[in-house]
Amino acid sequence: MPRSERSPLLLAGLLAAAGVTHFTAPRQYDAVVPSALPGTPRTWTYASGVAELALAAGVALPRTRKAAALATAAFFVGVFPANVKMAVDWRHRPAPQKAAAVGRLPLQIPLVLWARGVARNAEGRS
User: Fold this and answer.
1) Which InterPro entries does the UniProt record give (predicted)?
2) How many domains does the chain divide into?
3) DSSP assignment, residue 35?
4) pLDDT(45) > 50
5) Is 124 part of a structural domain of the chain?
6) Which of 19, 64, 106, 115 would give a disulfide with 73, using CB separation of 3.0 to 4.6 Å?
7) Is there a domain that residue 7 lies in?
8) How far apart are CA 28 and CA 96, in angstroms?
9) Are 23 and 49 in contact (CB under 8 A)?
């Protein structure tokens, strides 16, 4: 299977795995929900888990891949404030945890670019 065909499936797998963890280990996500959002952190944790599972399904299916990949790119941008909150909250933790939290920030860029690339490659196959 060529890399261009594997890429959407790998992205879908990443989204699905992350979505599942929102339900299996929700406390870690609750902690990074910005307090400015209305409602409870658990509601946002579950909602983002559902969103990731839906995006995974959309990216996995060729018929919905382009739209789902573009929505995935927007989702990665949308969750960036949670990553910033985590980096701020973890600034006094031991160095490995602090490094992991800060390291997540620039990781969003390749994730957004990956999702956009999947969308771009899906255009010619629609």
Assistant:
1) DoxX (IPR032808)
2) 1
3) T
4) yes
5) no
6) 115
7) yes
8) 17
9) yes
